């Protein structure tokens, strides 16, 4: 329908929360009520007063359940405690002159500033392990070559003994 929506109404009460449509201000939900009537047109033609009261109950029930949901989310996540501790942290850091952990405000840049030193340290650790493994492999390869040489020497010795015996 046309006309002002539930939020932007020039004569709405200044303390009315824009998200929740309050039944005590009829001009706020005239569009909403019109849609409700359109859905239940046959019922509205028979019982207009009853339709209005059902709509009022419906809206107040929705508002109550939304408020309960919000309260439940606040309780479950301990949001009020978290927000108050966050406020306390903000208050404590008001007079601090050095920049916060996220001075740039660009998440990628700030994560890099924290993570890059860690990754560099990890990389140097992995490189050290790699060098150790390469040294081990070199020693093993040398031992294998020495073993082969020794086998070749023994084979020649065996052949020499065979020929001498024949």
Automatic annotation (TrEMBL):
Taxonomic superkingdom: Eukaryota
GO biological process: cell division; chromosome segregation
Protein name, entry field: PMF1 factor
InterPro entries for the chain: PMF1/Nnf1 (IPR007128)
Main localization category: nucleus
Keywords: Cell cycle, Cell division, Centromere, Chromosome, Kinetochore, Mitosis, Nucleus
Any one cellular-component term (Gene Ontology): MIS12/MIND type complex
Pfam family, one: Nnf1
Localisation per UniProt entry: Chromosome, Centromere, Kinetochore; Nucleus
């Amino acid at each position: 329908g046309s006309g002002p929506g539930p939020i932007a109404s020039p004569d709405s009460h200044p303390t009315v929360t824009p998200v929740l449509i309050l039944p005590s201000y009829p001009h706020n939900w005239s569009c909403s009520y019109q849609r409700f009537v359109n859905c239940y047109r046959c019922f509205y033609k028979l019982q207009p007063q009853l339709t209005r009261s059902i709509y009022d109950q419906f809206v107040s029930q929705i508002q109550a359940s939304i408020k309960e949901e919000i309260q439940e989310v606040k309780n479950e996540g301990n949001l009020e405690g978290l927000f108050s501790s966050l406020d306390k942290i903000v208050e404590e850091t008001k007079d601090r002159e050095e920049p916060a952990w996220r001075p740039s405000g660009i998440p990628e840049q700030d994560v890099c500033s924290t993570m890059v030193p860690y990754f560099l340290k990890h990389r140097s650790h992995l490189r050290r392990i790699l060098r150790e493994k390469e040294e081990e492999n070199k020693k093993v390869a040398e031992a294998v070559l020495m073993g082969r040489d020794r086998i070749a020497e023994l084979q020649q010795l065996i052949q020499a003994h065979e020929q001498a015996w024949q």
